[in-house]
Design a protein that fits this description.
5-stranded parallel beta sheet, 5 strands, alpha/beta, 6 helices, 215 residues, 34% helix
């Protein structure tokens, strides 16, 4: 059970905009690099990127990149990750997963080590699951040697879930990129409802929260 998500879900009652993304892409292969290009004319100063794993660039519970995303799987996905690593070299690219690297789900860090080896990207070891691990993400970027991150507004979070990935970004004061379709389809009625939620909230006048430039 994700206690962090359950507790933070209560915040949505008072502040529904916490689950609204700043931009939406169909799947991971549509992610612009650099990510400042993902937000249209706003062009925020994105210096670091957080990637979700499950159903973002990997099949849930697997620790390898989902190759069928691409027409030429091997080359295209390697190019995508290479471009990310080039634009956001260590320590400015980080995987934050609720199934790899968490104290509860991966206590020996077995999945985190395998995922990092397969992608070339470090995986955050965190005790609180998303969306409550924002402080640990910020601490990672602010304390890492060579980091250029001085504010949460310089971070973009990429993921497929509104109530974990997007909410993590908004609670941090960062930018949220929602991967709407993900890797695999689901018949889960909650996920179907979740995908329709942004449009419904926007029709009621809710808007994504803009990160403060000095946050």
């Amino acid at each position: 059970m994700n206690v962090s998500a359950t507790l933070n879900f209560l915040r949505l009652i008072a502040r529904p905009s916490l689950c609204l993304p700043h931009t939406t892409i169909p799947n991971f292969n549509d992610l612009p690099v650099p990510l400042s290009d993902a937000f249209g004319p706003l062009k925020p100063d994105i210096r670091a990127v957080v990637l979700d794993k499950d159903n973002c660039f990997a099949v849930p519970k697997e620790n390898v990149v989902y190759k069928p995303y691409a027409t030429l799987p091997e080359e295209s996905l390697q190019e995508k990750f290479h471009s990310l690593l080039t634009a956001y070299p260590t320590p400015h690219l980080l995987i934050v997963s609720n199934s790899a690297g968490t104290t509860a789900s991966d206590p020996a860090s077995t999945h985190a080590r395998l995922l990092s080896a397969n992608t070339g990207i470090p995986v955050l070891h965190h005790s609180t699951k998303k969306p409550g691990c924002g402080p640990q993400i910020l601490a990672h970027f602010r304390n890492a040697p060579g980091s250029r991150v001085t504010a949460a507004s310089q971070i973009a979070v990429v993921g497929d879930r509104l109530f974990t990935d997007v909410m993590t970004a908004n609670l941090m004061g960062s930018w949220a990129v929602w991967v709407r379709d993900g890797v695999v389809g689901s018949r889960n009625p909650f996920l179907a409802w979740e995908r329709k939620l942004p449009g419904r909230l926007e029709r009621y006048g809710f808007k994504a929260l803009m990160p403060a430039s000095n946050s």
